Amino acid sequence: MKKQTRGRGRAAAVTTLAAALTLTLAAGTATAQASSEGQIIGYPGPDGLIWIPEQTGSSGFVSGGLSSRLDTFITFGCADGGSIEVAFHLDNHPDRDPAPFTVTCPDTSPTLVTLPLGTGLQGGFAATVTTSTPSIRWGATVVQPE
Asked: Is the distance from CB of 103 to CB of 86 less than 8 angstroms?
């Protein structure tokens, strides 16, 4: 009898967790559609490895886990005038690093630049974003669509 009770408890916990995840994903979708209000880049969905909706000033990120069987796309955007310079580095594939590039930031709605990096990439990656002024807002995503 204890095994059945324990099994029912796990089933209830899994059902509760599934409902919570569904609510979380629905909230994430709503955020993606509302990205123009206070975010530079909207939620990339389940294909996103990195999502930085908005950051102010120079900074960067590191991550890992690229899947060699999927295409990889990086997107950077910015707003509030000036520009950002992006340096993106692939740990296992430095020969495929995009050259540092500059994104001009308009005073109004954000500008987004997406670069396809192709398939066959695996391992870690990093980006450094240098802003022309400390008040520039920027965002980024790294996605590998299924």
From this structure: yes
76, 138 Cβ separation under 8 angstroms: yes
- Residue 54 corresponds to which amino acid? E
Cβ neighbours, 10 Å, residue 75: 19
Residue 128 tokens read as: 């450094």
Q: Count Cβ atoms below 10 Å from residue 113 Cβ, excluding itself.
A: 15
How much is the pTM?
0.74
pLDDT digits (tens, 9 = 90+) for 40-82: 999 999 999 999 999 999 999 999 989 999 999 999 999 999 9
With 0-12 CB in 10 A as exposed, 13-18 as middle and 19+ as buried, what is 31? middle
What does the block give as tokens for 18? 């599934």
Residues 6+ apart with CB under 8 A from 104: 83, 111
Chain centroid offset of residue 23 CA: 20
Distances 140 to 6, 17, 25, 31, 39 between C-alpha atoms, Å: 44, 29, 20, 15, 10
Return all residues near 113 (Cβ < 8 A) that are at least 6 apart. Answer: 75, 76, 77, 101, 103
Amino acid at 40: I
Write down the number of H helices and E strands in the chain: 1, 8
